[in-house]
Amino acid sequence: MSADCLFCKIAAKQIPAKIVYEDPDVFAFEDIGPQAPTHLLICPRKHIVSLEDVTDEDELMLGHLQTVAAKLARQRDLQQGFRTVINTGQNAGQSVLHLHLHLLGGRSMRWPPG
Fold first, then answer.
1. Contact between residue 23 and residue 38 where contact means Cβ atoms under 8 Å apart
2. What ranges make up the beta strands (E) of 13-94?
3. Which contacts (CB < 8 Å, 24+ apart) does range 97-100 have?
4. Active site residue 39
5. pLDDT tens, position by position, 78-99
6. CATH number of 6-97
7. 17, 23, 51, 100: which could form a disulfide with 43 (CB 3.0–4.6 Å)?
8. What is the Cα–Cα distance from 68 to 26, expressed in whole angstroms?
9. What is the predicted pLDDT for the residue at 1?
């Protein structure tokens, strides 16, 4: 945990958020500026700045993020489709320096994004 990280503070319940999923390794909450009817952020509890900073020991956790995304998509009836996104770095739109996966669904998506 990082003392000055917004998402670490959410995980520690020091900052309120609408948490929709928790387990020992991962937590998920609703984005405060949703870009789709469903817009969840799925985060590891371990503080990792970005995808660029993961190591081999994070491999299982990264798969777990995707598994949780699929589970939450099923719970929210996103059978028409959904998107998962990990922004890495400022030019990619990462605004919080804690690795997180966006789960977006409930509307038609375009390609390419951005």
1. no
2. 19-22, 26-30, 38-44, 82-85
3. 97/5, 97/49, 97/50, 98/2, 98/5, 98/6, 98/7, 98/8, 98/43, 98/47, 98/48, 98/49, 99/43, 99/44, 99/48, 99/49, 99/50, 99/51, 99/53, 99/54, 100/7, 100/41, 100/42, 100/43
4. no
5. 999 999 999 999 999 999 999 9
6. 3.30.428.10
7. 100
8. 8
9. 74
Kindly name the residue from 47, 98, 100, 102 that is annotated as catalytic. 100
The per-residue pLDDT for 40 is: 98
Integer Cα distance of 90 and 87 in angstroms: 8
pLDDT at 22: 98
pLDDT score at 108: 94
- Taking only the tens place, the pLDDT of each residue in 28-41 is 999 999 999 999 99
The domains of the chain are located at 6-97
* pLDDT of res. 114: 67
**Contact criterion met (CB below 8 Å) for 88 and 51:** yes
